[in-house]
Amino acid sequence: MKKFEYYTPTRIVFGKDSEKETGRLIKMYGGTRLLIVYGGKSAVESGLLKRIEDEVKAEGIEYISMGGVVPNPVLSRTRQIIKEGLEFKCDFVLGVGGGSVLDTAKAVALGLYNPETDIWDYFAGIKKPVKSLPHAGVITISAAGSETSDSAVITNDETKPYSKRGINGDFNRCRFAVMNPELTYTLPKYQISAGVADIFMHTSERYFAAILGNHMTDEIAEGLLRNIIKYGRIGVDNPSDYEAMSEIMWSGSLSHIGITGLGSRGDLPKDGDWACHQIGMALSAIYDYTHGATLTAIWGSWARYVCKKNLGRFAQLARNVYGIEEASDEKACEIAIKKSEEFFKSIGMPISLTELMGRTPSDEELTALSENCSFGKKRTIGAFMVLSYDDMYNIYKAAV
């Protein structure tokens, strides 16, 4: 194992009816004036929001609830919620929903603690955040792992083209995460599939790191990949299978808690590679596509583009995750990529831009995506292989 530092302060409350603990937990962490952030009508129609509000009232906690968070959460709504939260003088933020809601709740908590700073200045890298208001989550979608990560991502919908940015730090850590797999039963199958894909990708991004030789970390990552491949398929086919949905939910949290990338960071700003996420984020920013689908659409073209940097790493994926007995690293690498794409297709995810978009993107669109991803040719991405603007364009082109 290489040198690393690991910090995971989030309390996990997992299992059936765990949302009944929400009010008690908020009070335990000092919340007295609560801002509840949620997405659309499902939280209301399912009765979950009211159940949460009843638990909060029973603990004597004052609250306001604000919905309207959309997939690929936007800056404009985040600013509106911050404004309302400041007027209410809240001291705790609770996200009720999936990764988009949790990311918004994190951004809101940061904005409420630092009202003198425009929230986008943090995401644009103009200012460095240090601390935010205490926040937590009740999880209804297994995907982003935002409940256990130190990450948050917001799309600036006030610029043309839109830009999607993320920030990381301990200020983004939830105080607690309430996780009842039964809350995911009513999700559309496509949303479950996209979540499963995101979980696979969070693990893959850390697995394909620049710094290797962390064998226990590899064992954890490979086990998680095997688990999400097995139970992801079952959950997509039968969303009311508690065993499958609980395995998917916990895999989502573990995939983004950092444990599958321990020792791979060194002097780098992040553990792992994360090029696929950056390439996919440009697709979400410009076209508002579902995050998990953008990742599967480009993963194969990314993998084929970078694999020669370390064929043995892809061969290890083939042998330890897919059980492929192949002596040649080059052939095993080929098989690993094909097996991964077969998995994506089996859960209904696209494996090309043409499938994602329902048409063939133009060269002008590929250029615009590469410009967006490279911040106007001003940044590189990736660690397994560092990618320039030209590399990004070539990967988008290959994904057609």
TrEMBL record:
<keyword id="KW-0560">Oxidoreductase</keyword>
<dbReference type="GO" id="GO:1990002">
    <property type="term" value="F:methylglyoxal reductase (NADPH) (acetol producing) activity"/>
</dbReference>
<dbReference type="Pfam" id="PF25137">
    <property type="entry name" value="ADH_Fe_C"/>
</dbReference>
<protein>
    <submittedName>
        <fullName>Uncharacterized protein</fullName>
    </submittedName>
</protein>
<dbReference type="InterPro" id="IPR044731">
    <property type="entry name" value="BDH-like"/>
</dbReference>
<feature type="domain" description="Fe-containing alcohol dehydrogenase-like C-terminal">
    <location>
        <begin position="196"/>
        <end position="400"/>
    </location>
</feature>
<dbReference type="GO" id="GO:1990362">
    <property type="term" value="F:butanol dehydrogenase (NAD+) activity"/>
</dbReference>
<dbReference type="InterPro" id="IPR056798">
    <property type="entry name" value="ADH_Fe_C"/>
</dbReference>
<dbReference type="GO" id="GO:0046872">
    <property type="term" value="F:metal ion binding"/>
</dbReference>
<dbReference type="GO" id="GO:0005829">
    <property type="term" value="C:cytosol"/>
</dbReference>
<dbReference type="GO" id="GO:0008106">
    <property type="term" value="F:alcohol dehydrogenase (NADP+) activity"/>
</dbReference>
<feature type="domain" description="Alcohol dehydrogenase iron-type/glycerol dehydrogenase GldA">
    <location>
        <begin position="9"/>
        <end position="181"/>
    </location>
</feature>
<dbReference type="Pfam" id="PF00465">
    <property type="entry name" value="Fe-ADH"/>
</dbReference>
<dbReference type="InterPro" id="IPR001670">
    <property type="entry name" value="ADH_Fe/GldA"/>
</dbReference>
